[in-house]
Amino acid sequence: MDKFNLHNILKNHPRAESLTIREKLVKGFKKGIVATAGLIAHGRGECFDYLLGEKTQPFAFEAEKVAVATLLLSSNPVISVNGNTAALCAREVVKLSKLVNAKVEVNLFYRSLKREKLIAKTLRRYGLSKVLGVGGKADKTIPSISSLRCKVDSEGIFSADTVLLAIEDGDRTSALRKAGKRVIAIDLNPFSRTAIWASITIVDNLVRALPNMIRFAEALRKKDRKDLEGIVESYNNDNMLKEAVRFINLRLKNLCKEKVFGWSICGEEFQRMFLEKEALSR
Ligand code: ATP
Question: How far lies 209's CA from each of 10, 51, 95, 124, 279, in Å?
Fold first, then answer.
């Protein structure tokens, strides 16, 4: 059996998953899909993913379910796609959009027709027939956003009631809220302005959040509106963010109490490494 995965990463490397994500972004960067700043934004995300244990924690799972119910209840939901999202999860974006009946719009901080077209092509490869926001289709403006991200599609974000976005900055998130949109944000950093401004913040890695949301969508799309409203009703985003920070806080405290620092953070592979390290120091 091949020891390497599709991205040339050793399958049993303790950080294989994280390295694979990096490799996808580097490939996306080389193709012109990911912007230089997108690579840096990913680094900030990775740091928070460490703190979260690189797993979907219960508060994120709950937010993912509420987000899907919200998308299903919306009359014009739109998924906003930037370079990092396209490089990491184009297939999942397309699948989710079909399940919740959402439109998909390209929206970039570093906008160029070439990048827009490349991202649209990536999305089409996974079966999306209509991609909004490309070139002259972005014919409207969201006020108070500096940079070309203010350009939106009249059929898409401009008239959307709910916008799902990921790996986004606070200026755009707050401008969308001020324009009357419900914003669902996937952001690993619970302290970011995006996390604080969003209506629903999913503190999870995009690569875990979207597959979870797809599973929720498959289950929830059969429910009637009343059931969906029941899911959304009791959700409180402030409490969810506090829960995320409480989790990080507790996790760090518990780590400091461990006999061997790092023991519980790491998987089997690392635990073998600790035993080796211990044997050396004897
Ligand atoms: P804000 O302006 O909202 O305070 P920021 O300045 O950190 O945030 P960016 O630099 O644009 O905004 O960063 C984008 C955000 O995306 C960061 O908070 C980062 O933690 C998050 N992020 C990066 N990669 C991922 C990922 N794969 N999944 C989820 N979130 C991610």
Answer: 24, 16, 13, 21, 39
pLDDT of residue 101: 98
Cβ of residue 189 lying under 6 Å from some atom of ligand 1: yes
Residues of the chain with pLDDT under 70: 1, 14, 266-270, 282
**Residue located nearest, by CA, to atom 25 of ligand 1:** 45
The CATH number of residue 175's host domain is: 3.40.50.12640
CA of 188 to the centre of ligand 1 (A): 7
Q: Does 30 reside within a domain?
A: no
**Best residue among 92, 109, 189, 191 to mutate for probing ligand 1, ranked by most atoms within 8 Å of CB:** 189
pLDDT of residue 273: 74
Q: 216 CB less than 6 Å from ligand 1? A: no
| Closest ligand 1 atom, residue 48 Cα | 20
* Domain count along the chain: 1
Instruction: Kindly give the distance from the C-alpha atom of residue 168 to the centroid of ligand 1, in angstroms, as a whole number.
Output: 6
Domain coverage including residue 115: 58-243
The model's pTM: 0.93
Distance CA 45, CA 40 (A): 9
Query: Does the residue 125 lie in any domain?
Result: yes
Q: Is residue 272 a part of any domain in this protein? A: no
pLDDT attached to residue 211: 98
Pure H helices in the chain: 16-31, 36-51, 58-73, 83-100, 113-125, 170-178, 193-197, 206-220, 225-233, 237-256, 268-281
Ligand 1 atom nearest to 37, measured from its CA: 10
Residue tagged 């244990």 (tokens)? 53
Q: Return the pLDDT at 275.
A: 77
Decide if 261 is inside a domain: no
